[in-house]
Specification:
heterotrimer; A mainly alpha; B mainly alpha; C alpha/beta; A: mainly alpha; 7 helices; C: alpha/beta; five-stranded parallel beta sheet; globular
């Protein structure tokens, strides 16, 4: 699937399956989490937002990792499609990160009593969002798309190197300023009844990302190759 | 025949750029004044209580230092690119990342170093205890150097575009430096060990010098296409 | 004698547009190549591609090394003068010549002599106050700091009066006699001895 036309043909075949499977799994996971999973004895039903918050936070980070890998491939082998992938993944990653921030904030209101707490996790997610914004902003300022891809590749590699440092330093910063009181996620004793639907949700989110990425990438491919013969043939010579 | 080595050339670049910087005094005075003005804003905005200011001093000094060091960042390459001097870096057979490093060093000498000196004045007027001066200097030394490296990459990526863009794309990446830098000074205020933070900052610098310089070369070459 | 540089089949495409296609030439020592084309025809891109600043899409550039083999990597320094002449406004005429890589270890008198040779007497003036023609003379003086096997000069004859044109023609002839080659670009053919090609 290295070349754009090949990717386009291949993705046309896989797209219906991917849509069905991802929406099915996501639906099952969310339905299970929202209606069947037991109520938390401490937080009540509010905790159910976790089934959206945790997967989107995981996705926010994974997509950045994915982008950095694309960036690396784009820098070394100059593969066009990897640059397009990087570009198409960025807004999806930013959206998931934003979703994690918003759901975290909504969750915070009943549990902490405020909309925002400078909790280590939320803070590093916020910084991740800023980095996404920097990448998207940089891409939009460079007119030549291939050049923009390479510029963003460079920045994404710096990003992946610095994100662990950010996480670590935010952790230290928190322990220095306010000894950690209460962390919402990763309570060690999550019951399997809650853990299983969460796992399904995470898988569902990943598949959903794959679906969004494919759709986004197909648009990007068409947009960039609109003057190529294969696109013209595909759309019956319209231009 | 005279064989010119890379160190001779580096000396020439340093000499040339420092001569130019001194002839245009705004290059090193602007970040300095900017730093002092930002520092002055805090007592004006928050009130002049000694206890309040001394507890805020680490953060204030570091925010001012970060902003000031990014102020002139787009000038690192823009002039050399416009007048064609930058071409020499990539046409010569010498490794270009070393030449890029020379430019970063010059940027640090005309922004980081003045900030370092001004930070002592800032520490005085913000009532930072004397014991914290040494940690502050060390953290700023490591931190502003890293900021110059990061700024160079931002400048290379946004070459010929708006000056503010390079600062915006660099700021999120400067957060660890801000956190570590303030932690060094804050820890010294409460007599805690701060060597760990300094070591991380040193490690970031040690990885950043080759890593960021190489990526900056890649970013600069994009502008030739 | 072997050519110092062979350009084979060189093509460049930028965002779907062909900049130049199938360029072939060899640069023999002491001989010149002149590339003629209008503005935006890709002359500068071609020079930069030869130097490796830009990657080509097809073809190759082969450089002679000390063992008479051809490599994709250059083993000797070239002289490149782009559209921008690399002149610093805040340096004097003299400093603009002295503070460059090629003048390392060169005594002061030699540099004075070079400046005299290209007709610059106001050596302590800042370059900011110079006319276009005078700036070009500084750039030309740099050609003589060292002898290079290959000089790549982007439009050496643009915006020059007759006297300066003659000076440059003389210098090219003189350097040709020493075995140096020039690859130059221009809008129309110049008077120098060269094999010409249009792009």
């Amino acid at each position: 699937m290295g070349s754009p036309p090949l990717f386009y043909k291949w993705s046309s075949k896989i797209l219906p399956w991917l849509s069905i499977v991802s929406i099915l799994i996501l639906g099952v996971g969310l339905y299970w989490g929202m209606f069947y999973a037991p109520t938390d004895y401490k937080q009540g039903d509010v905790y159910r937002i976790l089934f959206i918050h945790v997967p989107s936070a995981i996705l926010g980070q994974s997509i950045f990792m994915f982008m950095a890998i694309c960036g690396f491939i784009n820098m070394i082998w100059r593969a066009k499609i990897s640059g397009m992938m990087l570009k198409s993944a960025a807004p999806i990653g930013a959206s998931f990160t934003l979703l994690a921030l918003v759901t975290g904030s909504i969750w915070g209101k009943p549990t902490w009593g405020t909309w925002w707490v400078w909790d280590a996790r939320l803070t590093s997610t916020l910084i991740l969002f800023f980095i996404y914004a920097a990448l998207i902003g940089l891409h939009s300022t460079i007119e030549d798309k291939t050049k923009a891809d390479r510029a963003v590749s460079i920045l994404s590699i710096v990003g992946i190197a610095i994100i662990p440092v950010i996480k670590k330093s935010v952790d230290w910063w928190q322990t220095l300023h306010q000894p950690s009181t209460f962390t919402i996620t990763s309570s060690p004793s999550m019951s399997p009844d809650m853990y299983q639907p969460l796992l399904i949700c995470v898988i569902g989110f990943y598949l959903f990302f794959a679906l969004l990425l494919t759709l986004n990438l197909r648009n990007e491919v068409l947009e960039r190759e609109k003057n190529k013969n294969w696109v013209r043939q595909l759309f019956g010579g319209l231009s | 025949m005279m064989q010119s080595s890379i160190s001779d050339w580096l000396t020439i670049i340093l000499r040339r750029d420092l001569i130019i910087a001194f002839r245009r005094s705004s290059t090193y005075i602007t970040p300095l004044i900017f730093f002092l003005i930002v520092v002055t804003f805090f007592p004006l905005a928050l009130g002049p209580q000694e206890s309040l200011l001394s507890s805020l001093a680490p953060g204030v000094i570091w925010i001012a230092a970060l902003l000031a060091s990014l102020l002139a960042v787009e000038t690192i390459f823009s002039e050399d690119f416009r007048d064609g001097t930058l071409d020499d870096f990539f046409i010569s057979l010498e490794p270009s990342f070393i030449l890029v490093f020379a430019k970063v060093l010059i940027h640090w000498l005309i922004t980081g170093l003045p900030i370092l000196i001004a930070s002592m004045i800032a520490a005085l007027v913000l009532y930072l205890p004397f014991e914290s001066f040494i940690p502050m200097i060390f953290s700023l030394l490591l931190g502003t150097s890293f900021m110059s490296l990061l700024g160079a990459l931002g400048a290379a990526l946004s070459l010929g575009r708006s000056a503010i863009l390079s600062a915006i794309i660099v700021l999120p990446f400067s957060i660890p430096t801000l956190l570590m830098g303030t932690s060094v000074i804050s820890s010294s205020l409460i007599n805690q060990d701060f060597s760990g933070y300094l070591m991380i900052m040193g490690a970031m610098l040690a990885i950043g010098i080759p890593g960021l310089c190489l990526l900056t070369v890649e970013a600069l070459l994009l502008n030739y296409e | 004698m072997l050519p110092n540089l062979k350009v084979e089949n060189l093509s460049s495409v930028r965002s779907e547009k062909v900049i130049f296609d199938n360029i072939n030439f060899e640069v023999m020592p002491g001989q010149n190549i002149e590339i003629i084309g209008s503005n935006g025809s890709g002359k500068t891109t071609l020079l930069r591609t030869i130097l490796g600043l830009i990657n080509q899409d097809k073809g190759q550039i082969l450089w002679l090394d000390d063992n008479d083999n051809y490599n994709k990597f250059r083993t000797f320094d070239c002289f490149y003068q782009g559209h921008q002449l690399g002149i610093k406004n805040l340096l004097t005429v003299y400093e603009n010549l002295q503070l460059t890589k090629n003048s390392i270890g060169m005594p002061q008198e030699e540099i004075y002599k070079l400046l005299e040779r290209v007709g610059l007497s106001n050596i302590n003036d800042f370059a900011a106050n110079l006319s276009v023609g005078q700036r070009k003379r500084i750039a030309v003086a740099r050609w003589l700091l060292k002898e290079f096997k290959v000089y790549l000069i982007d439009e050496p004859f643009s915006a020059l009066d007759d006297k300066a044109t003659l000076l440059i023609e003389d210098l090219i002839k003189e350097l040709n006699a020493k075995g140096c080659s020039f690859i130059i670009t221009g809008h129309r053919p110049s008077n120098i001895l060269a094999s010409r090609m249009e792009i």
